[in-house]
Design a protein that fits this description.
Keywords: Lyase, Pyridoxal phosphate. The structure is a single chain. The chain has helices spanning 11-17, 44-49, 62-75, 86-97, 112-124, 166-175, 188-191, 228-238, 244-275, 295-301, 318-327, 373-389, and strands at residues 79-83, 103-107, 128-132, 148-154, 179-183, 201-205, 219-223, 281-285, 308-313, 332-333, 343-347, 363-367. Strand 2 (103-107), helix 5 (112-124) and strand 3 form a beta-alpha-beta unit. It is globular. With 390 residues, the protein is an alpha/beta fold. It has twelve helices and twelve strands. Bound molecules: pyridoxal-5'-phosphate. Pyridoxal-5'-phosphate binds at residues 85-87, 90, 111, 158, 183, 185, 205, 207, 217, 219, 336.
Length: 390
Amino acid sequence: MAGRDFDTMGIHTRLAHAGNDPRDYFGFVNPPVVHASTVLFPDAATMAARSQKYTYGTRGTPTSDALAEAIDALEGSAGTIIVPSGLAAVTIPLLAFLSAGDHVLIVDSVYFPTRNFANTMLARLGIEVEYYDPHVGAGIQALMKPNTKVVFTESPASNTFEMQDIPAIAKAAHAGGAVVMMDNTWATPLYFKPLDHGVDISIHAATKYPAGHSDVLLGTVSANAECWPKLHQGFITLGCCSGPDDVYQVLRGLRTMGVRLERHQESALDIARWLETQSGVARVLHPALESHPGHALWKRDFCGSSGIFSVVLAGGGVKQAHAFLDALRIFGLGYSWGGYESLAVHVSLADRVVAKGPYEGPIIRLQIGLENVEDLKADIATGLAAATAV
Ligand SMILES: Cc1ncc(COP(=O)(O)O)c(C=O)c1O
């Protein structure tokens, strides 16, 4: 589109304008929410050849195209599929790229439902699943087998925020002929662009920051030119398209994601630094903190941090964790994140097989929302006092 090439422009310009062109719909700023199964053809020949842009609701609509094109502009990808949840954004590419007899390497600090899918459904389909240490870096080469078809990464890690050396892993994986996938939900394409660092397929739970309001489930999967045909084919084969209202809500969320993320980043870092000075705290797991073991990698590859990190309480167990959580008044107790409101959850590392680490105390994951930082600190201080008093 002449005059609308936003690819070379700043990230906030892309967030504001990527996707639909208002001139396609009589100048209305936003695209229509197209509710569609059937698409009509003008004549039998067009129908037989399917020679028109839209042919069936599962294969894309102007609404899903608007979001997919906006995500492509942010990710630098050749194509994006929109699926009904972040978990579907993990399972669909794995199903599309793995076959019986293949071997898949998955980071041990992965989002638990990803592990659950691999250990149950992938294993049942005859795929050999192996977990690797998040700090493996170029050492992943030693774990590659002739039948390794996918290396799955997530950085920073779920709950414990270990950083992975993505370029080193991608190089070794490609040398062994494997496709590299990354769950990039934490950073969003604003703070890390996986395809620029050697990843082939970038995965997002758009439920989090893109949606931003804790009221929508959606996932996006973006591929480079080489992997796009296979990913798209898998998506069409599985029929996992998403409802247009949810797709629209995520496109709407994208427009403000940049300003929301700036606030999440600033507040989370302020609270993380403050937590490092508080008694009752053993450690703060936030990769943008200088004290974090993965800080150098984060600094090298990422250009920002989002609003979720963990705090390790100084000793104790479930009782201390529950006392902390039950004392909170502003933070809600809930699992999803990326919304405008603050949340806390006690996390377990019981599923880890490689990256267990020494036990220092209960781990509480905090999602820092858009509230006033001083109010959030006061709430956390109440939680810390309650945990210490047990
Ligand atoms: C890192 C990560 N990936 C994927 C998902 C799955 O997203 P959804 O809740 O939309 O299925 C989550 C959800 O918490 C997540 O934290």
